[in-house]
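Anyone able to model this chain together with adenosine-5'-triphosphate?
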Amino acid sequence: MSEPAVHAFGLRRRFSHPSGDVEVLRGLELSVAAGELVTVSGRSGSGKSALLALLGGFDSPDSGRVLLAGEPIDGAPPWHTCAVLPQALGLAHELTVAENVALPLRLRPGTDSTEERVTGLLADLGVGQLADRYPSEVSFGQQQRVALARAVSGRPKVLLTDEPTAHLDAGSSPAVLRLLRRCADEGAAVIVATHDDAVHAIADRRVRLSDGVLSAA
Ligand SMILES: Nc1ncnc2c1ncn2[C@@H]1O[C@H](COP(=O)(O)OP(=O)(O)OP(=O)(O)O)[C@@H](O)[C@H]1O
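re: yes, here you go
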């Protein structure tokens, strides 16, 4: 049997606060196959973002491991292996919308035409008219869609997204859902932390983070 695209086991993560330590993850286990879309729910502060940071290599667990396609991660992997869409988005503000989305393609040229891929993704997400603007010239909800386009443009094997519909109105969110589903259908392992029932509705599997571990939702 092939390795899961994402395999996390025994993950523990403790944070120190002046009021005392908090162990947010307590031996968490998660396996996600290529082509699978998994949503992670859990109350605010339960550790969903902390989990995504560990899976994406932006943070290190106190114990436990994360394997991507069977390989242990050592820092943040390249975008074509694992792309992260954090709540803070992390767009490059000195680049235009189109240049941001093109970035993963420029770092690792593949078979896609950069211009077609960028134009297509921005159009799919309803922000095609913003290609030449800078991130500071578009709304936060529009920036969120641009950041999603950038995350997926290089066709990552693993896509980690944190509340990708949080700032969208009802009219904008279906395009985001379609794109997340398409990424999984094209073979990516997609993990979405969300409070949004519409995202849970497109999942292959739903899990809930509570008391530092995951269970079926
Ligand atoms: N770098 C950090 N330093 C200290 N504490 C942290 C750090 N990152 C997260 N925490 C704490 O870990 C807990 C989990 O935070 P996290 O952001 O992962 O929750 P969440 O489930 O994503 O919440 P939300 O749904 O509100 O986004 C919180 O108590 C938070 O204060």
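Helices lie at 48-55, 97-107, 114-124, 140-153, 173-185, 197-200.
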